[in-house]
Amino acid sequence: MQIYNRAQIAEKVRLDHAALEAVEAGFAALGRGEVEMPPILSMNIAENNGEVDVKTAHIHGWPRFAIKISPGFFDNPALGLPSLNGLMLLFSAKTGLVDAVLFDEGYLTDIRTALAGAVAAKYLAREAATTVAVIGAGLQAELQVAALRLVRDIQAVHVHARDPLKAQQYAAQMQARHGLPVTVHASAAAACAAADIVVTTTPAREPVLHWHDLPRGVHVTAMGSDNPHKQELEPAILAGADVLVVDRLSQSRALGELHHAPDLAREVLELGALVVSGRSARSRDDQITVCDLTGTGVQDTAIANYAARLLEGA
């Protein structure tokens, strides 16, 4: 058994096309019905604004499966600590023995979450998309945009965040790290006005994005709602979108955006099915497309297998 720390893992696993292919392969396996993935084990620690999720999946034919333990404590930044933490345990799918402990402190979760957003945009955003609006100014606000650059020619970013200072810091950071110009806006509607892609990256408990905020032709990826008490999109967005996609129907209904629209009567696709099809879900450039990402165990097993291969080859 090998134990790897965050520094070792981050040296090998980056936001690049190879990592994107690994996560996309996980979604493809899910779309083909080749995955065993139980419901998420989730526990809230309300008195400290915290939660702990345990996710796992086995992909048929893959040599290993991962069990990921992921705490999220959202008051931590005020204490000088990261909001997310955790580790992944990697087991042999043949013997059940522990192959590796990936003590990544949440790094791999951050990477696979951002890459899932890129997979969604690959099949749902317009080919000519160049402008992103981000709601929120945390780590995923940066990583989602960085991952999008793997699938679209992103040239400009617009941001709105509850804390204007954090939005300004985000703008400076994106310019310094990624060379992208960022415009800070006082409202979500203003940020979205000229966007080709909108990404919501918040732990909000009520909608931060409304139907009237969205221009025609936009693609929306909502990745913050992964617990029943969280919500980023008003239900009118789910009802009005021309194409509605989720990473896993059962999860979105239990703890994602669909949880807040129980009477929604319309077609909802799974992202894995789009990946298997190999085709864009768009039939016209003026369509509004939406993808709700709750985070799946198959992503964790996919990125953990990928990380282990790289680490073992070191």
TrEMBL record:
Pfam families: OCD_Mu_crystall
InterPro entries documented for this protein: NAD(P)-bd_dom_sf, ODC_Mu_crystall, ODC_N
GO cellular component, one term: cytoplasm
Protein name: Cyclodeaminase
Source organism per UniProt: Pseudomonas xionganensis
